[in-house]
Design a protein that fits this description.
Layout: H1 6-14, H2 19-42, H3 56-73, H4 86-113, H5 125-146, H6 162-187, H7 200-220, H8 233-261, H9 264-270, H10 276-295, H11 305-334, E1 340-342, E2 345-346, H12 349-366, H13 380-383
Antiparallel strand pairs: 1-2
């Protein structure tokens, strides 16, 4: 880890940007990177690689999950002594290589024995089947960090990288159980209609709503109200039950928002698949929450906790809904050249908006907003410590 003198840090902060300018500068870099690499690697019309929608979407999901492993669970163990931008570039390179290896193992390895995961399955369904593991992984592995605080591994004195290794190893078990019960029955090659707990699109919408709950409480409300239950296992239990309840409520709220934004004809055309729209709006909200906590200093921080929390939730929610509307009704068709979903709705927000989440994690978290001035003294991040991803 690079150690700066106190005078160097103070000077850099004094020369830095106000919180809102720092956040907007990060957003501009993320937009440029996201669009440039989209047009090069994923765009269904402009990219020469022909990777859209699969396997590029599956690769994207695995990259995000491996980023969670490296940056959240392992807390960049092994990279701390490197200076930026070498540190960030090295972490990103490792993340991409590991993610691609996982993708290949599922599609070309496991898929050889089980056609449900095969790369050649029609419509890229083999890639989708395996990548749904990431949905449950993003829920379980992120919750273990930002809600549980690495409990119980931190409580027994484990240090990195062993803390992260233990966390990843143990939490893979509940992740796989959720995947086996809620995803495989609807997507496996042996799946039979009607023999599922939830239809696939409903599963995606419902569990992503719980992910949204985890991010709201872990980032915007600094683990409130779960932390009121007490330390360690009590917070972990409260957050697990609480996120399930809050996530269920959010699922219906987000579906309600979808019904307000989309026309009745578009809703009818989606039929039983309308549940996925909760996830599509949810991922737009999640993008802004992650960016807000890490690039906008989790503003505001100087009011009472309740006011701080409410303002953060309202601001990021409004930005998320607006992002969903702009993406679905304009950008997906005219900028990203994605195909029609139904009626006047285009694209899949779980693709491109997750693409922006990935570049947020790469640039802001892995690279530490390299190249931008620091946030000025007195800005939210300097005023109050928050739990960030």
């Amino acid at each position: 880890m690079v150690v700066e003198s106190e005078s160097e840090r103070s000077s850099a902060v004094r020369r830095g940007l106000p919180w809102y300018a720092f956040g907007l500068a990060n957003l501009a870099v993320i937009l440029v990177l996201s669009l440039a690499f989209w047009w090069l690697l994923a765009d269904p019309q402009w990219s020469p690689l022909g990777l859209y929608p699969q396997p590029i979407t599956a690769a994207l999901f695995w990259v995000i999950l491996v980023t969670v492993f490296v940056g959240f669970n392992l807390e960049f163990a092994g990279f701390g002594r490197l200076k930026q931008p070498v540190r960030g570039v090295a972490a990103i390179a490792v993340i991409i290589v590991v993610a691609v290896l996982i993708l290949i193992i599922f599609a070309r390895g496991w898929g050889t024995f089980d056609p449900a995961f095969a790369a050649g399955r029609e419509g890229g369904l083999g890639y989708q089947t395996a990548s749904l593991f990431v949905l449950f992984g993003f829920l379980i592995f992120v919750m273990a960090v930002i809600n549980w605080g690495h409990w119980p591994w931190s409580a027994v004195g484990l240090k990195q990288p062993w803390l992260g290794i233990a966390e990843i190893g143990v939490m893979t078990i509940p992740t796989f159980i959720l995947f086996a019960f809620f995803a495989l029955p609807g997507l496996a090659s042996w799946a039979q209609p009607g023999h599922v707990i939830m239809e696939v699109n409903t599963t995606i919408g419902f569990f992503y709503s719980i992910v949204v709950s985890v991010i709201i409480t872990g980032l915007l409300t600094e683990n409130w109200p779960w932390r009121l239950a007490g330390p360690g296992g009590r917070t972990a239990l409260a957050s697990t039950i609480g996120n399930l309840v809050l996530g269920t409520v959010l699922y219906f709220i987000l579906l309600g928002i979808a019904h307000l934004i989309m026309s009745p004809a578009d809703i009818a055309a989606l039929g039983s698949g309308v549940g996925v729209m909760a996830a599509e709006i949810g991922v737009c909200w999640a993008f802004w929450m992650i960016l807000w906590a890490n690039a906008f200093g989790n503003w505001p921080t100087k009011f009472t906790p309740v006011v701080n929390y409410v303002v953060r939730i309202v601001v990021t929610f409004v930005l998320g809904v607006l992002t969903f509307a702009v993406y679905s009704y304009w950008a997906a068709q005219n900028v990203l050249h994605e195909p029609q979903l139904v009626g006047s709705v285009y694209g899949n927000a779980l693709g491109f908006i997750d693409w922006m989440v990935m570049f947020t994690l790469f640039y802001v978290v892995c690279l530490g907003s390299f190249g931008l001035p620091a946030m000025k003294a007195g800005a939210p991040a300097a005023a109050e410590s928050t739990t960030e991803v």
